[in-house]
């Protein structure tokens, strides 16, 4: 009987001979063996990753001790992660990568609200509250009323937008940083009304340090960088057909306004708090003299953002002299 060898093809049949690899030929050979991937985007990502990693090692003449220290650093980041703490997001933040990726993927059309970093303390258990509700349980915080709207680029109000809101307590800690947390606090989810309005009661945000008791904090210390973030409130907007917006509002005059540890501050997101007057206090059921945050947010449609993103991608790739095409709005090599 003749054996059917159709499905017994050797897994090494099409591999290049990986022998006698050196500083000069390890990179193209690694790229070549990875190029067996059928996913064009994955193939491209891995080729560029390997190229830049190898060039970094060659350019810096990376020592074995430094290489091992880097691996141990990543291991330490993994070990300290938990359901409520993600050291890798924090690392991405302090390296400026989080903001860079967000700006690439969610460019802001003229008139739109700029994005900012998500940060490592967003959760999915925030209570859904009615407009006008209080999201704070902190008796030490300075009361703040927030009156906001969300509109499109033409100024039309957007109803039914889901808004995720979160901030620290008056001690500068998010609820998930407290070991005795038994329920969400200083966070909520709301919906904009028919006029695009949403409003809530919180507390005046305070400056706070990012978690610096782990490997990322030690890295900042080695770099002589402080771990502080300026006072801010996070917002996350979502609605079908609209580009999701992750942003924050930062208090004007904060001592860390121009040196945010995670590079999140943009001048268009810096706001100055006012004070609640008698009429507003009566209308919204708060004390006169409380802090007042007022802001108008502007969203763009997915189509508007994708068109801008594609145009900027093509322009940037042309500047780099790369022959690329866009597939699902992502660049892959243009093959002859």
From TrEMBL:
<dbReference type="Pfam" id="PF00775">
    <property type="entry name" value="Dioxygenase_C"/>
</dbReference>
<dbReference type="GO" id="GO:0018576">
    <property type="term" value="F:catechol 1,2-dioxygenase activity"/>
</dbReference>
<dbReference type="Pfam" id="PF04444">
    <property type="entry name" value="Dioxygenase_N"/>
</dbReference>
<keyword id="KW-0560">Oxidoreductase</keyword>
<keyword id="KW-0479">Metal-binding</keyword>
<dbReference type="InterPro" id="IPR039390">
    <property type="entry name" value="1_2-HQD/HQD"/>
</dbReference>
<keyword id="KW-0408">Iron</keyword>
<dbReference type="GO" id="GO:0009712">
    <property type="term" value="P:catechol-containing compound metabolic process"/>
</dbReference>
<dbReference type="InterPro" id="IPR000627">
    <property type="entry name" value="Intradiol_dOase_C"/>
</dbReference>
<comment type="similarity">
    <text>Belongs to the intradiol ring-cleavage dioxygenase family.</text>
</comment>
<feature type="domain" description="Catechol dioxygenase N-terminal">
    <location>
        <begin position="39"/>
        <end position="110"/>
    </location>
</feature>
<dbReference type="GO" id="GO:0008199">
    <property type="term" value="F:ferric iron binding"/>
</dbReference>
<keyword id="KW-0223">Dioxygenase</keyword>
<dbReference type="InterPro" id="IPR007535">
    <property type="entry name" value="Catechol_dOase_N"/>
</dbReference>
<dbReference type="InterPro" id="IPR015889">
    <property type="entry name" value="Intradiol_dOase_core"/>
</dbReference>
<protein>
    <submittedName>
        <fullName>Intradiol ring-cleavage dioxygenase</fullName>
    </submittedName>
</protein>
<feature type="domain" description="Intradiol ring-cleavage dioxygenases">
    <location>
        <begin position="119"/>
        <end position="287"/>
    </location>
</feature>
<dbReference type="InterPro" id="IPR050770">
    <property type="entry name" value="Intradiol_RC_Dioxygenase"/>
</dbReference>
């Amino acid at each position: 009987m003749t054996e059917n060898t159709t499905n017994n093809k050797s897994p090494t049949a099409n591999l290049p001979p990986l022998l006698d690899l050196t500083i000069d030929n390890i990179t193209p050979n690694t790229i070549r063996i990875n190029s067996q991937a059928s996913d064009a985007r994955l193939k491209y990502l891995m080729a560029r990753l390997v190229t830049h990693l190898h060039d970094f090692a060659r350019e810096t003449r990376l020592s074995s001790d430094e290489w091992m220290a880097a691996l141990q650093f990543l291991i330490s980041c993994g070990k300290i992660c938990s359901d409520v703490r993600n050291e890798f997001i924090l690392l991405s933040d302090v390296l400026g990568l989080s903001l860079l990726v967000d700006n690439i993927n969610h460019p802001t059309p003229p008139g739109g609200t700029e994005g900012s970093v998500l940060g490592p303390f967003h959760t999915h258990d925030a209570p859904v509250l009615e407009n006008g509700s209080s999201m704070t349980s902190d008796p030490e915080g300075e009361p703040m009323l927030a009156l906001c709207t969300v509109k499109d680029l033409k100024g039309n109000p957007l109803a039914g937008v889901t808004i995720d809101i979160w901030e620290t307590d008056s001690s500068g800690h998010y609820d998930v940083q407290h070991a005795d947390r038994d329920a969400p606090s200083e966070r909520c989810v709301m919906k904009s009304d028919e006029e695009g309005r949403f409003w809530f009661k919180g507390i005046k945000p305070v400056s706070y340090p990012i978690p610096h008791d782990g490997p990322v904090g030690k890295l900042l210390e080695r770099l002589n960088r402080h771990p502080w973030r300026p006072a801010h409130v996070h917002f996350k907007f979502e609605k079908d057909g609209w580009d999701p917006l992750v942003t924050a509002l930062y208090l004007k005059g904060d001592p860390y306004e121009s040196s945010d540890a995670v590079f999140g501050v943009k001048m268009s997101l810096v706001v100055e708090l006012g004070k609640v007057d008698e009429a507003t206090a009566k209308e919204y059921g708060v004390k006169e003299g409380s802090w007042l945050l007022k802001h108008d947010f502007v969203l763009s449609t997915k189509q508007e953002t994708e068109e801008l993103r594609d145009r900027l991608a093509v322009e940037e790739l042309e500047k780099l002299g790369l022959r690329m095409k866009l597939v699902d709005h992502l660049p892959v090599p243009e093959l002859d």
